[in-house]
Amino acid sequence: MASEASGNVNLIPSLPLQDRVAIVTGASPNLVSSEINSASSPTTPQAIVAQADVSEPTQVKSLFDKAEEVFNSPVHILVNSAGVTDPKLPSIANTSLEDFDRIFSVNARGAFLCCKEAANRLKHGGGGRIVLVSSSLVSSLKPGIAAYTASKAAVETMTKILAKELKGTGITANCIAPGPIATEMFFAGRNEEYVKRVIDDCPLGRLGRPRIWHRWWGF
């Protein structure tokens, strides 16, 4: 553990979530909101669900507007987890332009628009957090999922540049790259043989669990 005496490392302490407003895109919103609200008073819910297309700038703006209006506070945290893939697992040669554009529209353009809005509207001066979601596929480079992997590589690049651009604002930008998580998106179009292959490649011999995956953001 680094100590103050070392004089070389400045640690940013983790902050409590009490009285901080967060926007979480994608990520099984009903599950996230129900978990949060189950721990709060039924008359004063702490989470709401709002529908928006993150690839549309006006709808991304409306997410921030809604959060500020409902909770009467500037937004402190953005977790951008919205993403799509192609369940057909096509090779690059067989990937349609329409599917490529759809994946990049949500995964890369959506991340850009959410980051752009957050960089301009998150509370400055400390406590602002931007968390983007990439994928372990960016490192493993598995065939059959090139468009999705490339879109997540773009997310990682944006995160690194954004973190530098936010210097002095008190806002941090980080990216997490999970392995396969047992979500609806993962199982869509996958047969049992494919799922078993993926599980066999996992060090723990199982898929990631959504409820635990959501806690990574807080860490």
Q: How large is the count of helical segments?
A: 8
Highest CATH level, the class: Alpha Beta
Name the CATH superfamily classification. NAD(P)-binding Rossmann-like Domain
Shape: globular
CATH architecture: 3-Layer(aba) Sandwich
Oligomerization state: single chain
Biggest sheet overview: 4 strands, parallel
- Structural domain count: 1
What is the topology, as strand order, of the major beta sheet? Answer: 1-2-3-4
Radius of gyration: 18 Å
Order of helices and strands: EHHEHEHHEHHH
Helix/sheet category = alpha/beta
- Portion in helices: 40-55%
| CATH topological fold name | Rossmann fold
Beta fraction: 5-15%
The low-pLDDT segments are 1-9
pLDDT average, as an integer? 81
> Could you tell me how far the N terminus lies from the C terminus, measured between alpha carbons in angstroms?
17 Å
Would you count the extended β strands for me? 4
Pfam family, one: adh_short_C2
Keywords: Oxidoreductase
InterPro entries: NAD(P)-bd_dom_sf (IPR036291), Sc_DH/Rdtase_CS (IPR020904), SDR_fam (IPR002347)
GO molecular function: oxidoreductase activity, acting on CH-OH group of donors
